[in-house]
Amino acid sequence: KVEVERIKQIHETNDIVLLTSLGVSPSGELFNVNSEFLAASAAGSLGASKIIYFNVHGTSFLNRNADKPVQNLRARDAKNLLDHYKMRIHPKGFVLLDLDSESPRQSILRTPGSMETLIKVGYSMVALEKGVKRAHILAPENGALVQELYTRDGCGTLISRDIYDGIRRADVNDVSAIYDLIDPLVKSGTLVERPKSTLEKEALSYYVYTRDNLIVATGQLKRYEGGFAEIGCLVVSKDYRRGGRGDAMLGYLERLALQSGATKVFVLSTQTMEWFVERGFREVQVGSLPPSRQSVYNNKRKSKIYMKVINGTRDLDAAELWW
Fold first, then answer.
1. Which of the ends of the chain has fewer CB neighbours closer than 10 A, N or C?
2. Max Cα-Cα span within the chain
3. What is the pLDDT of residue 99?
4. How many CB atoms are closer than 10 A to CB 283?
5. What is the average pLDDT across 45-56?
6. Do the beta carbons of residue 8 and residue 47 sit within 8 Å?
7. What is the pLDDT of residue 113?
């Protein structure tokens, strides 16, 4: 049991709580508790937004295609990684793994650095499953903690929960639901009219956020030359606007744009753009748009243009901290 209230009382006096890996039963019997599991359990009970593990060997993951360190993993990717190496964390906190297999992938586990890193990933997943939003795995080097937390690129591996679960690409079967969702904003003049025939033709450029098979948000992503992408028709049902779904939809589309090579994302609207400004967009002129978008810009509507430059996934990871 984690004494949450007692820990919070101590935190309120600006003191730090150190937890020992020795546990005591009501009868006075001593137990040696795995420290990583203890940290994950305590972080989950306290509602912590992040947990940090130090990797003694400093081993990290490498993207073979880009020949660069893997800086972030989504929870489902981390889970797939553990499944690939047949490793899991028992509910009581100890590690279960298969070292009997002679396959090349299992031989990796026999190197201390690789073993330790995967174990840290396993305990990170325990923390995320208990409600912690993010887990960091760092090498114990001078300045590593400061660099990871206060610089864009960081220096370790960040594992985060799948905040985009429920978002998928739309298809023609979603057209009626998308039309019904955006219709009130079309009637108010906030959005340009989009007939169902147009939505059907452009269905694959739309993405939808579903809850129990109900579409509660949608957004469109169009890619242009020169590393540009346009996000349009970003709409959240009025009954679901307090759950961070607009932020999740925007973040998802920004990640898709970045994956396709677009580092400059823009939006157009005749309405107030304060929501986008708060999320890093800045007003620009028509001349800042890619040529093919300039050619179809509606001068009569005079939509304002706001653009955001995305330098990498760490920019997006940092933005998610404020959701």
1. N
2. 80
3. 67
4. 12
5. 93
6. no
7. 85
56-70, 113-127, 242-256: least confidently modelled range: 56-70
CA separation for the pair 181, 170 (Å, rounded): 14
Residue 136: phi and psi, rounded to 5, are -115, 135
State the average pLDDT for the chain. 89
In degrees, rounded to 5, the angle at the alpha carbon of residue 94 between the alpha carbons of residues 88 and 100 is 60
Rounded distance between C-alpha atoms, residue 81 and residue 159, angstroms: 12
Task: Take residue 78 and report the two structure tokens written for it.
Answer: 């981390």
Separation in Å, CA 32 to CA 37, 47, 144: 11, 24, 29
Kindly provide the residue ranges of all beta strands, DSSP E only, lying in 127-280, ordered along the sequence. 134-138, 157-160, 167-169, 206-211, 214-224, 228-236, 264-269
Query: 287 pLDDT exceeds 80?
Result: yes
Residue 206 has φ and ψ, to the nearest 5°, of -100, 155
Which residue, among 179, 175, 249, has the nearest Cα to 217 in the 3D structure? 249
User: Cα(126)–Cα(97) distance, rounded to whole angstroms?
Assistant: 16
Does residue 19 or residue 241 have the better pLDDT? 19
Q: Tell me phi and psi for residue 287, to 5 degrees.
A: -65, -15
pLDDT tens per residue, range 180-203: 999 999 998 888 899 999 999 999
Q: Which of 52, 123, 51 is nearest to 82 (CA)?
A: 123
Work out the average pLDDT over 29-34. Answer: 88
Helix axes 112-129, 75-84, angle to 10 degrees: 130
* The pLDDT of residue 273: 85
Mapped onto helix, strand or coil, the DSSP state of residue 33 is coil
- CA–CA gap between residue 77 and residue 82 (Å, rounded): 9
CA distance 248 to 198: 25
Tokens of 203: 């269905």
pLDDT at 176 over 90: yes
- Dist. CA 159–CA 110, nearest whole Å: 23
- Beta bridge mates, 302: none
Check residue 139 and report its DSSP letter: -
